[in-house]
Input
Amino acid sequence: MGVEAVRRALEHLPRAPGVYLMRDRQGRVIYVGKAKDLRARVSSYARREAAPTWYRHKVEAMVARVARVEFVLTASEKEALLLENTLIKEHRPRYNVDLRDDKSYPYFRLSLQHPFPRLSLVRRPDLNDGAAYFGPFDHVGAARKTLRLLQRIFPLRRCSDRVLASRQRPCLDHEMGRCLAPCVGRVSEEDYARVVAQARRFLEGRGQEVARELEEQMRRAAAAERFEEAAAWRDRLFALRHTLERQRVAGTRGEDLDALALHQDADALRLAVVCVRGGQVVASRVHELGRAALEPEEAMAQALLMLYGRLTPPPLVLLSHLPRDPALVAEVLAERAGRRVELRLPRRGEKRQILDLARLNAQAPRQGRSEDPQAVLERLQARLHLPRPPRRMECIDVSHLGGRLTVASLVAMQDGRLHKAGYRRYQVITSEGAPDDYTAMREVVTRRLGGDRPPPDLLLLDGGKGQLAVAQAVLAELPPERRPALAAIAKGRGQGPDRVYLPGRKNPLNLPAHDPALRLLMRLRDEAHRFAVEYHRLLRKKALTRSVLEEVPGVGPKRRQRLFRAFGSLAALRRATREELQEKGGLDRATARRVHAFLSALDTLPAPK
Output
């Protein structure tokens, strides 16, 4: 493991170009890298530095997880670069650049292959379908608002191809002046194509050119005394000018370019992308790259190949950090674009101002973006002193109404995300009639860990030290391989954060309210509570029907029918004693006890709303 695994790999690595893959103990690829000299590049991971930088700290954390190193030889460094990009997309390694960010950005799609193209908003562009795509946009709400504005300026259809072919009369969009109604022949293909071309030029950043064209059409209609048509052109022109006034002018003399800036601080690495088309800033977005164990130059090279894997790069790309071999990366991008692509680090002038704008966006942390699940699990491992990150977590919540009809829920998380397939619900019925929380918790923990399902990495209990002590007593009677790590979470006092208790610790952990680890536990607990309340509502609803008996363990459709044939009604069943349930209903002693306790609990329930 770790440095020793890297040193063992050096015995077999050649001095040739290629790609190397680092795998962890589970066989997962955690890093993919390329090199002109594989042996020289991989040997750098085995060196120690007296004063490690932020980058070296990340590298050392990655190397500590390495169990083995594999390699693939290539004929040239360019082939290694392309193979590295392919393998990163395939494996999505933890310590490489990943610009997907678990989020699909919205794009404008113009379906150019149809006689009457449609302008729509999509999440995942297909560059092989013949349509034109514009974007991406960082905020879907702003993209939808822009689309509504475009409908006023360029009245293209919004309906699907199927609806277009089947309509017999114009829709409401046409009545509001937001569609030219090609569905019923209100516009020719030539006139519609002219509006499509205007919309495309606007989305490409040539809005001023479109404004001049609209003004000329307005003047022609007015000169020919087609005043209604002139008024329509005037309204579209005003809407377009209002939109253009709100766009920021970049001052790059109408050029098309992108600016990419990396920002690195204590615990984060962010990449900001600013898109300039026709001299105007048309889009910007920020990617969180905190997991990447890369130097900025290497991170920028991977980001360029990932970013322009779907989209065509503009002729000029401004960068805050040039890749180690910018000519090689530019050659690959030029092949994808079908023309020359220049990578430049501007030092002064207007282009430096655009790059500074990208740097400003990269410096600002993005609130509301989802935390990296793996990073949160590692943080939780450190906070709870666990032997490994808790990839599988489960939470138990006990719920009842005044001590009656006690139920419990179990919800699961896998790799920091809710795992619905692992949800379970339990009905708790004991011989005492009205079990308390501790007795119910003991029963549910015993049933969960006593079965064949593998135990979770962490079992979370909704409660305090009492529930935790009950679970510890249950685990003491189980074999070691069936004992998961335990924790309990209780509501905080007053305005304080929720409290987390651990076995063998008197006081709760001191976790601040904004700690991602605490928020993850709270989310799991809240989901368990929601699931338990939902089960209660289901039982209260079924209390008005005969099928409620099937909620009792051991009672299925056949036994339910036999009970109702013997007693005639649910009310008669509620009045029956355990002995009568055995004699008349044909139940065994244990099932009769469970049915009697369950029906007694139903007597105390309020009617469902």
In short: Residues 256 and 575 are 82 Å apart (CA to CA). The radius of gyration is 33 Å. Confidence is low (pLDDT under 50) at residues 245-250, 604-609. The chain has five domains: 3-91, 107-205, 257-363, 374-540, 543-602.
